[in-house]
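Async update (no meeting this week)

Hi team, since we skipped the sync, here's where things stand on the single-chain job. The sequence we agreed to prioritize is pasted below, unchanged from the tracker. I ran it this morning and attached the output directly underneath so nobody has to dig for it. Comments welcome in thread, and please keep replies under the output.
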Amino acid sequence: MGWVESIQRAIDYMETNLLENLSIDQIAKEAHASTFHFQRTFSILTDMSIADYIRRRRLTLAAQDLINTDNKIIDLSYKYGYDTPEAFTKAFRKQHGVTPSDARKKLGNIQSYNRLVIQVRLKGAEPMKYKIVEKESFQVVGMKRTYNCKTGENLKGIPLFWDEVNTNGTDDVLFQLNNGEIEGVLGVCVVDESQKDSGLMDYWIGSAHIGDIPENLLALEIPASKWVIFEVHGPMPHAMQNTWKQIYSEWFPSNPYVPAGTPELEVYSNENPNNEDYYSEIWIPIK
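Output:
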């Protein structure tokens, strides 16, 4: 089964069992992937977590039921996985901007999330510039935070982490320490293979450094790997996000490689990240 077919199989499984007690671990198994890898791929492609997708789809169907049937609101609350009508009403209002009662009266607009279909663009795709290199292991020094990818905590937490590092001057320190093989400040995604189904990910902000570990910073050893290195051109964060999507929706389905599962890197230069010609890179270990 191909990469795209595997992802679509997992989405179809979610849709078929949308009213059941869905397990993210089981969803990932449908795609023949680890929980972490599937959640990460899904969030890159859709900008939301699996839990967000399930919630949005359930509330979309709930709105359709409210408009098209006479089912009681309390019954719909339980049908779509809420313990109380109050919890259902709160979630419904957050997504749709109106209460279930108002939706039934057709007061206001409903925000609908359609069923996902994964596609590979075959025409008009933007060219991707990349190279494949092999490198020995190297040391990164910096700071790390742990995020839960099952809940989508990484989608909100990582940008806040970068804001903190840029505000308190840590990024300047990391640029000064950068004497290793890779030039720039790095964002590093790390998953412990022994805990890959937990959905937890360590995210590091650091730089390649040869020498002693500076006070108040931690060290991470990046293993020797074969890397595919993608060029990223344009202002942050959109250029980086768009390139990640292009990698997973176009490059991997069209090439004989898969991610190796070891740390992945985002490489940022010491220029103005808002510039239209800002240059950065994505490094993915492959096998």
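Quick observations from my side:
The chain has two domains: 3-104, 130-285.
Strands lie at 130-135, 138-148, 185-190, 200-208, 218-222, 225-233, 264-268, 279-285.
Reply here if anything looks off.
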